[in-house]
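[INFO] parsing input record for CBS domain-containing protein
[DEBUG] input buffer:
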Amino acid sequence: MFSVLNKSAKCASAINMGAFKSVLQPRYLSSVMNSSATAMNVYKESCYFKIDFKINEEMTVAEAVTRFSAFNIGCLAVTDKQDKVVGVFSERDLITKVCAQSKSTHSVKIKDVCIYSPNIIIAKKDDSLESCMSKMMFKDIRHLLVVDDKNEEFIGMISIKDLIKEIIKNKTDIITRLSDFKIGKGAYFGSE
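[DEBUG] output buffer:
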């Protein structure tokens, strides 16, 4: 019993002294992100790289739901008759524009509920992880279309999950620091 109380008191003391404060600072967050990874690198490792994540604007929402389920994804790139990407349709659009309004997924077309450009938030293929994450957090979105820097041509799509996987894959430092803290190597991260 005293052991648990003692550990709780130590944790509370460490928190009060600022043990976790540095982890929440933007500078620290950017330091744990892989600065060399780009939107294009993340896309190549993404589940979107291997599947057809486009849907024609004339298709129904029910067809989009089938793809969401089949590929375990949450967003589709919307194309026009010429197969040019013109918008996005996400699970959030499904919920807010179809389900919440009691519309039939079998009768509503994608073009009636998707988000069209220029309102689409994009990532250039050379954007950093930090830049991509900032765009997602600032706009409260979970997917970005990736475009070529030079000609604005559509390349692919990435999700917040893809960014997090990349950060975790390349950064064991924070895991080591948290492990050190857990086993009592110091109240502050990195202390001996």
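[INFO] The longest strand covers residues 85-90.
[INFO] shutting down worker
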